[in-house]
Specification:
The chain has about 425 residues and is an alpha/beta fold. The chain contains 14 helices and 14 strands.
Amino acid sequence: MELKQQGSESLIELQQSLLESYNEYKESGLSLDLTRGKPSAAQLDLSNNLDGILNKKFTLQDGTDVRNYGGITGIPDARKLGGEMLGMDPQQVMVGGNSSLTLMYQYIAFALLHGVEGKESSWKSQADKSGSPVRFLCPVPGYDRHFTICEHFGIEMINIDFTDAGPDMDQIEAQVAADPMIKGIWCVPKYSNPTGHVYSANVVKRMAGLGKIAGDQFRIMWDNAYSVHYLNDQPADLTNVYSEAVNLGTEGSIIITGSTSKVTYAGSGIAFLCASSSNLEAFQKYLSAASIGPDKINQERHVRFLKDINGILAHMASHQAILKPKFDLVQEILFNNLHNKNMGEWTVPTGGYFVSFETLPGLAKDVVRLAEEAGVKLTPAGATYPYSQDHSNRNIRLAPTFPELHELEKAMNVFVLCVQLASVNQAITASTPETSD
């Protein structure tokens, strides 16, 4: 029965019942963590054959010794591997260290302070001339570390809503056309963090066309972090944004990133940045001032281990076998406890690492606090919004990947209990007549 259909006495009885269960959890000494989307130990074990795979063979076919300096763009076979994974020509792929986030940070610093076509083209130079700050569009809820990069550099962020097909392109096109100081947009186009969206073909095509209406040096930061992270047997299709941009003559606006950090070892993967030839050449020159080359030994390890896109997909099937039961369990517990009770709604992703939950308005912080007091840590409410400001105070990102199944079950049982308790508390407050002096 929905809360709004229950009388005050019934609500108080329900509150007392929920409190009894809640206090039992508090007294049980739980210490569980659903805060970040980390691979579990079982997932990391899938890549243990990386260790020793080179068998002291450090020379590539072209004679390159991967133990030595050089190769700022990465070894050829690693560039090819990244191209297959992200749908790009290997010549337009740069291979870095373990973190695509680092490459994104470096590219933003490059465009903001240095300028992709020299100092006068820098976003900062344009901001100084216009007297207006650099701005970025941010589909929400979204990835907190994207927002951290913008906040670090003082880039103003503008929220963009989601539709079922992806970010609201009407909003985006109107904003970009009206403000030349909007210099970019963050996108996680496949199995979005945290909502699980897969951008529709129409959204991708319209996204590729933004370079025609945006201000100078506009960049679409296409963070395809979950390109191969599927939960269903049939991976979702994502239209190739770079191909669409080439057709429109806007390929210079596209910066694509990805990595193997949730494919092999989270702390020791390899990362990719893909862009037009001119973009890549300028970025390579910028990075060369700080580095003589990446860890080519690790790149060659990954090539030997994963081999090609078919090897990647076969490897990801093993990840799926570990992750799907966890995501199924989350859905089962949410459905069994909250379906048709008007206490919140949630996504049912077909890939990626998260489930996005929306409480009733105003309750996310209460739910997170109640869960923490009962021994379950959740991602802070508001973390999925710029400046950590979810003005409706609704969104909570659930990360089921790291815990063991039995731990996840306990954590989710606590979570739904906290959602129920916070919802009932709110309903009782709303139904209690205000008294005046």
